[in-house]
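Section handout, structural biology tutorial.
Before the tutorial, make sure you can parse a SMILES string by hand: atoms, branches in parentheses, ring closures as digits. In the record below the ligand is LJ64HWYM, and the chain has 293 residues. In the tutorial you will relate the predicted structure tokens back to the input. Do not try to memorize them.
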Amino acid sequence: MVTAWAPATSANLGSGFDTFGVALDRPGDVVTVERAEETTIEMRGLGSEFIPEDPAKNTAGVVAAELDAPARITIDKGVRPSSGLGSSAASAAAAAVALDDLYDLGLDDETLVRAAAEGEAVVSGDAHADNVAPSILGGFTIVREDGVFSVDTDLALVACLPDRVGSTREARDVVPQETTLDELVHTVGSAATLVAGMYENDPVRVGRGMDERVVTPARAALIDGYDAAREAALDAGATGVTVSGAGPSVLAVCYPGRRRDIAAALTSGFDAEGIDARAFQTRVGDGAYILDR
Ligand SMILES: Nc1ncnc2c1ncn2[C@@H]1O[C@H](COP(=O)(O)OP(=O)(O)O)[C@@H](O)[C@H]1O
Ligand SMILES: N[C@@H](CCOP(=O)(O)O)C(=O)O
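Predicted structure of the complex:
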């Protein structure tokens, strides 16, 4: 029997749609696997009643099929589903790492990321790897068709999860399919600034580099309370605020000492619109690891 933990993640970071992601140091999912003839899944924890136990519909079950590693899988959810915090990815990442260990497969990180991304295809319609990559590798990650790499970075974050659900599949439908050259230039400038900021552990550059004007506004329009929460967080000292993943969570980057105030500002911003929300004071963290074997 092998047990692995994998973290929640925040994808896109504004300017890196389907490309950038960060691992959060909390919360995370715990996945236990045991060898079996056929894959079965048992769900526990946050929001588990909304997650299918059919292995063909659960991201962890899809990973077991991809790796040809059938197992009795138990998932303890620490990341609420439909959150914008990579809930479906955390289970896939933990399952990939646990099954690799259980069956002594010796797979490299890239193969684990690709297998875990197939789980995402089942829930969102696309094998986007920008959540599973940081959940497996940790740090800040950049995913392209031809590879994935991670950058160690020391950055304070606040993630705020409103009491609403958001489907990644539905939020992908509102993404504009076309943009202008001006917007492309702006996004490239932001993305480059963000990457420089990640290497320099600079929350101001990262915050500025999150600015993006095509995908983010389309997603923000689906999130009740987003504008109020964002304004309140910026007033409280956040150096950048954007939609986390496909939403409804909101991600703020800041200096470490500002986290408490920004967490309060984000929740009060949602509260002003009559929406309960929970904020996590966190930072960029490590990737999945084996808890027990
Ligand atoms: N192991 C899993 N953990 C979480 N959600 C899962 C899992 N397997 C399948 N799902 C489904 O994935 C959807 C949530 O994923 P998604 O919409 O991408 O949101 P999130 O940002 O929280 O990952 C839900 O419909 C949920 O039932
Ligand atoms: N790049 C994806 C990321 C979805 O992240 P999630 O945490 O909402 O699953 C997208 O923006 O659709």
